[in-house]
Amino acid sequence: MIVSNLEVPYYAVIFTSVLKDIEISSYYKTAKRMEEIAKEQQGFLGIDSSRTDIGITISYWKTLNDIINWKNNLEHKEAQIKGREEWYSKYQIRICKVEREYGFEDL
Amino acid sequence: MIVSNLEVPYYAVIFTSVLKDIEISSYYKTAKRMEEIAKEQQGFLGIDSSRTDIGITISYWKTLNDIINWKNNLEHKEAQIKGREEWYSKYQIRICKVEREYGFEDL
């Protein structure tokens, strides 16, 4: 399910990526683990993730400082290094302020 | 390929969605068409899209006004109505200001 109806303003980290080899099981194991520990961080609001030919993961945070703390989390830093050395051919990270939000649900 | 290295600040529209029935061919045809005409709009900077159990499409724009114009595009408005009536069980739209950006490429 998708994350909905958070209270603006808050922050989003858009992480888009291309894998070197989409069959790397260590990548999927680590990606799952990162999602689990992100959820335990202060200021975490939610995460949306999808991967086809490209991967898109968006995590939502209360403040910019929460994002910096998550970036500097030790286990996360180790994953970032492995990401550059082993898994990704390319990635892009965008730090955004969410200013407006609306949704639809077919009830 | 993913969109990279745009010049901050600019805007992102994060569109996350859940389909009622992922086998709807009219949906895929319209989604493709919307991407084509978005690219022709003023202020369009790029688009990243992926769909597995959820769909994530992020379009990037120079200004908030460019986003409003795209929202009000006639063909886009027709697609929005069909989206609510036929395709989506749920969606969420977030308007964000991209404040920082950095990337990695394994060359």
Q: What tags apply to this protein structure?
A:
about 110 residues, alpha+beta, Alpha-Beta Plaits, 4-stranded antiparallel beta sheet, 3 helices, about 40% strand, globular
Spatial order of the strands in the main sheet of chain A?
2-3-1-4
Tell me how many strands of chain A there are: 4
CATH architecture of chain A: 2-Layer Sandwich
The total of helices of chain A stands at 3
What is the helix fraction of residues of chain A, given as a range? 25-40%
> What is the CATH domain class of chain A?
Alpha Beta
Mean pLDDT of chain A: 95
The number of domains of chain A is 1
Largest contact between protein chains? A-B, 41 and 41 residues
Distance between the termini of chain A: 15 Å
**Rg of Cα set of chain A:** 14 Å
Structure notes:
Chain A is of the alpha+beta class and 107 residues long. Helices cover 34% and strands 40% of the residues of chain A. At the A-B interface, strand 1, strand 2, strand 3 and strand 4 of A face strand 1, strand 2, strand 3 and strand 4 of B. Strand 4 of chain A pairs antiparallel with strand 4 (88-105) of chain B.
